Amino acid sequence: MPAKPRALGVAVIVLLAFILITGGFVTVGPGQRGVLMTWGAVEPGVLDPGLHLKIPFAQSVAKMDVQVQNSQDAETAASLDLQDVTTTVATNWHILPADAEWVYQHIGNESALVVKIIKPAISNSVKAITAHYNAEDLITHRDQVRGQIETQITAELKPYRLVVDSVNITDFHFSTQFVQAIEQKQVAQQRAQQAQYELQKAKVLADQKIVEAHAQAEAQKLLQQTITPEIIQQQAVAKWDGHLPEVLGSSGVLPMLGNLGITKVDR
């Protein structure tokens, strides 16, 4: 046999051997589970991370990601007061590792899960919970709403061997008309609070004036009770500077001499 055809035959044999050898192994990475299929039929059980043997050509392995994954979607729903509210929800979920084979066989890979199961569950849960709240209450009770949506999504995904790790509301979006109505309401509340403050301030000032008026009246009354004619005469003497008025009355007597206790002096 010529050397050239012989070398070609050897190369073909080596290539086939390489294909058979490499095709007989599969590696399942960290955070994955392998689903073994023989001629397209899913075998029971899952392949854990690591190196595994399989029959070349006859068997194949589908790798399923069992790590935490995130699905985020915005859903528009009607609130209890018939306002359109768009809620953006981010859901963290993962496949139960031991059930990766069941999930693949009944639903498909991760992309099929999101389209067929995850998004419909989020949409239905948001609509169901939103319908129990007025639009404004969705904001004031945000954490309560989030918890109820999470509970609803968890219940809907459980039959599909999926676990909900967390649910977060990242945004509420309302119609322009509703936002304007809320702003007008806030302005009206602020004006009412300002008016109440001014009213209370005026009342305090009025009360202060009444107290001051009572205090002045009491002081005047007390002063009148304590002043006697003797005190008045003493005050008049104390204020006199010792000089007599130069103008005398018609009788030649100084008008205040009698009051001051001074004897008439003839000139």
Automatic annotation (TrEMBL):
InterPro entries: Band_7, Band_7/SPFH_dom_sf, Prohibitin. Keywords: Membrane, Transmembrane, Transmembrane helix. The keyword Lyase does not apply. The chain crosses the membrane at residues 7-28. This is Band 7 domain-containing protein. It is found in: Membrane. It comes from Paraburkholderia ginsengiterrae. SMART domains: PHB. It holds the Pfam family Band_7. Gene3D superfamilies: Band 7 domain. Residues 23-186 form the Band domain. One of its GO terms (cellular component) is membrane. SUPFAM superfamilies: Band 7/SPFH domain. The lineage of its organism: Bacteria, Pseudomonadati, Pseudomonadota, Betaproteobacteria, Burkholderiales. It comes from the Bacteria. It is a single-pass membrane protein.
